[in-house]
Design a protein that fits this description.
globular, 3 strands, 3-stranded antiparallel β-sheet
Length: 152
């Protein structure tokens, strides 16, 4: 790993974890009437935008383990929201497709995301929000690169 500049902790503690946790709680509350979790909603949204993802691709996009993704797909399949189909080029691999039942929830999932974003962004001016998003995107890229540099 390359040498790092250590930045003092942000005043107020683990702000990133708290933001992610609060967003998750709000998403889950908004999706609960539809018997969905935030993770299920994100997975379905991805599958509606990119049909026929392999399980490993879905796991990569959700940044979760393949085993966790498998359990998530199992639950969604049991509820009729996704279908596994054999990959025509590799019969050892399944491709995952959102069903019409899942597509019927697309507006609900999108609305929940917009509502949580509106709550999170309340009182923040557009220029501040754009600057913050630029900084956070750079942090994400830095951390992703650091993960790629790991020896283990």
């Amino acid at each position: 790993m390359t040498a790092m500049h250590v930045t003092p902790p942000v005043k107020g503690g683990p702000i990133f974890q708290e933001i992610a946790r609060f967003r998750g709680i709000l998403f889950d509350a908004l999706l609960r009437p539809h018997n969905l979790t935030m993770a299920q909603g994100w997975a379905l949204s991805l599958l509606m935008r990119e049909e026929g993802l392999r399980q490993a691709d879905l796991a990569d996009r959700l940044n979760i383990a393949t085993v966790t993704t498998s359990k998530l797909i199992d639950r969604l399949e049991a509820r009729g929201f996704v279908q596994r189909r054999a990959d025509p080029d590799d019969r050892r691999t399944n491709r995952i497709y959102a069903t019409d039942s899942a597509r019927a929830l697309f507006d609900t999932i999108t609305s929940a995301r917009r509502e949580v974003d509106a709550m999170a962004n309340a009182g923040i001016d557009a220029d501040q929000l754009e600057a913050a998003m630029t900084v956070l995107d750079q942090m994400r890229r830095n951390l992703k690169a650091a993960l790629g540099d790991r020896d283990d």
